[in-house]
Design brief:
Number of strands of chain B: 2
Largest sheet of chain A: 6 strands, mixed
CATH topology of the largest domain in chain B: MetI-like fold
Strand content of chain A: 35-45%
Structural class of chain B: mainly alpha
Oligomer: heterodimer
Largest sheet of chain B: 2 strands, antiparallel
CATH class of the largest domain in chain B: Mainly Alpha
Distance between the termini of chain B: 43 Å
CATH topology of the largest domain in chain A: Rossmann fold
Order of helices and strands of chain B: HHHHEEHHHHHHHHHH
Structural class of chain A: alpha+beta
Strand order of the largest sheet of chain A: 6-7-8-3-9-10
Distance between the termini of chain A: 35 Å
Strand order of the largest sheet of chain B: 1-2
Radius of gyration of chain A: 25 Å
Chain lengths: 362, 297
């Protein structure tokens, strides 16, 4: 079985703790995305799985076998590097055939596999070229083709799409997803681009400062962020996180003191366990608000500060008592700067975080 | 006049082949630089009278007598038959010693710089600095101890002695230069090769070395030029059998009839041929080598 198991993986560079106690379990056929801001240890984690970096502590198991002491070449992993790492002095065909030489395949077999993978990734016309003469998208395809040609145990991708322009990135994203779907291998993709993670992953592991903050499906990561960091990191525009004081709870409705206003919001029943008067952080996504014409108990009012049209939608920045609230509305909604508006949070869209920054839920 | 005008006319400039004006201008500058070499080559083909003529002559009937004199001289005693000057042997010595020394320095230097670049030690820069300090002393300071040590261990006057010395002499430069080339290479390519099943030797020889052809060529050319022209060590550490051309050349100055300019110029002309050849053969690599990394890929 092609699986990756990582337990308590730790890496220390001198005094710096780059990766701290990471546990991951990637099933065969599953795509796991390691997502996090730069410097969070995601690439180091990937390199430890690959064997390119030694582990300070913890264990890496591939296909059930401990591989900590095994060299990268013996781990039977294929990796796609951020800058493709094509072999500059070899032609595309030689690049593709390179991983096969280790398996001591006969040349006819190598040629056959090369032409097959080249057809799959539309590289047949450039097989004789050197990597220096390829377009960016072609380089990326060669890198992917070289990874899949060998039928390895599992795949590792390090920021696979970061060098491509927007349009190419979209096509490549689909293409990679399609290829991975057909292979049923454990795959780990490192990315700092949440859109990439949300679209390609079966599960996302959000990392910060060498630790895993949450591992969940793209849907759950978005709808049930475990803590403030995940809540703020996932989603564009970012979730509104407002300091608030819980003043009461009754029948699924919490009453909060937010920016000098009292607002009743539908929240998770676990909120009733919090003491009245507790400081919390309210997390509401910009798309979870509806603009309402009249004030009510469950509305929050603010003044329009800045209007950013985004095409299909419009992003409105509002100010109230020095807090910035971002709301995304349909492009047909017209507001003017300085206008006072009332907005209501849709049911089940508000998250409450306690003083430790963890989401309160049951 | 039109040449001058075209020099300063602002039309038709940039990204086009230079006009005749600039070409001529560049040609004149090059000629000024190249003139000493050209003069030496011309002198090599002159008779003694032409070589010493005042004012100097630019047009003369070329003769090969100087080149013959490089290799053969007329015996002072006996029937006046031609005797070999041994210069052929000295040329062989120069070529052999320089290529062996540079080759050795390149091998050791490339391996060392790979280590410095990819597996840095604690205080890596200190070691690199220490390596370089060996070249900071003027050779004249170290020549006496080296001379004595070579005498003691019996390396004095042998090929192996000079070759080792030249290898050591070129090593700091090779290490520093090759290290900068290795630093420019993406380690990802090496990691990728490792993951694709390459051994460490495979990574070095199949991935790094092919990418560094230009760098190796550039380093080799500089080292060859440096070694080829080296005089001081060769003077003290070679014997009559292993003498190199610069030393032999010095001995021809101050014959009984004053400096034989024609002969000297002929030796120099011949002496230039191998360096010219090496540089010419490697010039494409050389250009890429010295500009390596100055333009971002």
């Amino acid at each position: 079985m092609s699986t990756i198991q990582v337990t308590n993986l730790t890496k220390r560079f001198g005094d710096m703790l780059a990766v701290s106690g990471v546990d991951l379990d990637v099933a065969a056929g599953e795509v796991l995305c390691l997502l996090g801001p730069s410097g969070c240890g995601k690439t180091t984690t990937l390199r430890m799985i690959a064997g390119l970096e030694t582990t300070t502590d913890g264990e890496v198991r591939i296909a059930g076998k401990r591989v900590n002491e095994i060299s990268p070449s013996e781990r039977d992993i294929a990796m796609v590097f951020q800058f493709y790492a094509l072999y500059p002095s070899l032609t595309v065909a030689e690049n593709l055939g390179f991983p096969l030489h280790h398996d001591k395949l006969p040349q006819s077999e190598i040629d056959h596999l090369v032409s097959e993978v080249a057809r799959k990734l539309a590289l047949t016309d450039v097989l004789h070229r050197l990597p220096g003469y390829l377009a960016e998208g072609e380089k990326q395809r060669v890198a992917v083709a070289r990874a899949i040609i060998r039928d390895p145990n599992c795949f590792l991708f390090d920021e696979p799409l970061s060098r491509l322009d927007v349009e190419l990135r979209q096509t490549m994203r689909g293409q990679i997803k399609e290829i991975l779907d057909g292979l049923s291998k454990a795959t780990v993709i490192v990315t700092h681009d949440q859109l990439e993670a949300l679209t390609m992953a079966d599960r996302i592991a959000v990392m910060r400062d060498g630790k895993i903050e949450q591992v969940a499906s793209p849907h759950d990561i978005f709808t049930k962020p475990k803590n403030l960091f995940v809540a703020g990191f996932i989603g564009t525009p970012a979730m509104n996180l407002q300091e608030a004081v819980l003043t009461g709870y009754e029948a699924g409705m919490g009453t909060f003191q937010v920016a000098n206003q009292t607002v009743a919001i539908a929240v998770n029943p676990a909120v009733q366990n919090l003491a009245s008067g507790a400081s919390v952080t309210l997390g509401i996504r910009p798309r979870a608000y509806d603009i309402i014409s009249e004030a009510a108990d469950d509305t929050f009012s603010a003044e329009v500060d800045l209007i950013e049209p985004m095409g299909a939608e419009t992003l409105i920045h509002m100010m109230e008592s020095d807090t910035d609230v971002r709301v995304v509305v349909d492009r047909t909604v017209h507001l003017t700067q300085g206008e006072r508006v009332h907005m209501r949070c849709r049911p089940d869209q508000a998250h409450v975080f306690n003083t430790e920054g963890n989401r309160v839920f049951s | 006049m039109s040449v001058l005008l075209s020099l300063f006319s602002k039309k038709e400039r940039r990204l086009r082949e230079a006009g005749w004006g600039w070409t001529l201008f560049a040609g004149i500058i090059s000629l000024i630089y190249f003139f000493p070499v050209l003069w030496i080559i011309m002198t090599a083909f002159k008779t003694r009278a032409d070589a010493l003529a005042t004012p100097p002559v630019f047009f003369f009937t070329p003769t090969l007598e100087n080149f013959v004199a490089v290799f053969y001289r007329v015996a002072q005693t006996g029937g006046g038959e031609a005797i070999s000057t041994g210069m052929g042997g000295f040329f062989f010595n120069s070529i052999f010693v320089a290529s062996a020394g540079v080759f050795l320095a390149l091998i050791i230097g490339t391996l060392a710089s790979y280590g410095f670049s990819r597996y840095p030690l604690k205080g890596n820069d200190t070691y690199l600095f220490v390596v370089l300090t060996t070249r900071m002393l003027p050779p004249i300071i170290v020549i006496i101890p080296i001379f004595l040590m070579f005498r003691m261990v019996g390396l004095s006057g042998s090929y192996i002695g000079v070759i080792l010395l030249y290898a050591a002499f070129n090593l700091p430069f090779s290490i520093w230069m090759m290290k900068s080339f290795f630093d420019e290479l993406s380690p990802d390519v090496e990691d990728s090769a490792r993951m694709d099943g390459s051994s460490e030797f495979g990574v070095f020889f199949k991935m790094c070395i092919p990418q560094l052809k230009a760098g190796l060529a550039a380093t080799a050319v500089f080292a060859v030029i440096l070694t080829w022209n080296e005089f001081l060590f060769a003077l003290l550490l070679t014997s009559t059998d292993t003498r190199t051309v610069p030393v032999a050349m010095a001995r021809t100055i101050g014959g009984e009839i004053g400096v034989e300019w024609g002969l000297l110029a002929a030796i120099i002309t011949l002496f230039l041929v191998p360096v010219f050849a090496v540089t010419y053969l490697l010039q494409n690599h050389l250009l890429r080598g010295v500009t390596f990394g100055t333009i971002k890929k």
